[in-house]
Amino acid sequence: MVEFTDPGEATALRRASVRALGELGDPAAIPTLRELMSDDDRALAALAATSLTQIGGPAFEVLHAARAQGREIGRIASAALHLASLREMAGVQRCVT
């Protein structure tokens, strides 16, 4: 799946591959997703950050480190972390009600 994230691939294929990496939840994808957070395709970069939240665990360390960098990558990481916390709160609310 990682090979389909290369810049030479079609945009739709790259984005679908990044989504799939998150859904698979394999920590082996973390280095690739971390690199893609700096991609020129800002939508792809945001998908990479979101996929990191789906992997969880050590991927959150990558997002926190990126957030501390500031700039665009920091904003993307902050947004992904915020969305992850909202998903978590929604899951807790469903369990309580």
List the main descriptive attributes of the protein structure presented here.
mainly alpha; 97 residues
- What do the pLDDT scores average to? 84
User: What helical percentage do the residues reach?
Assistant: over 70%
Task: Decide which structural class fits the backbone.
Answer: mainly alpha
User: What is the rounded distance between the termini?
Assistant: 38 Å
Question: What Rg is obtained from the alpha carbons, in whole angstroms?
Answer: 13 Å
SS elements, strand count: 0
- Per DSSP, the total helix count is 5
The coarse silhouette is globular
Give me the strand/helix succession.
HHHHH
Tell me the major beta sheet. Answer: none
Q: Low-confidence runs (pLDDT<50, min 5 residues)?
A: none
Strand residues, percent: under 5%
Multimeric status of the protein: single chain
Structure write-up:
The protein is mostly helical. Helix content is 74%, strand content 0%. The chain contains five helices and no strands. α1 packs parallel to α3, α3 packs across α4 and α4 crosses α5. The N and C termini lie far apart (38 Å).
Write a brief structural summary:
By secondary structure, this protein is an all-alpha fold. It has helices at residues 11-24, 30-36, 42-55, 58-68, 71-96. α2 packs antiparallel against α3 (42-55) and α3 (42-55) crosses α4 (58-68).
Topology:
Layout: H1 11-24, H2 30-36, H3 42-55, H4 58-68, H5 71-96
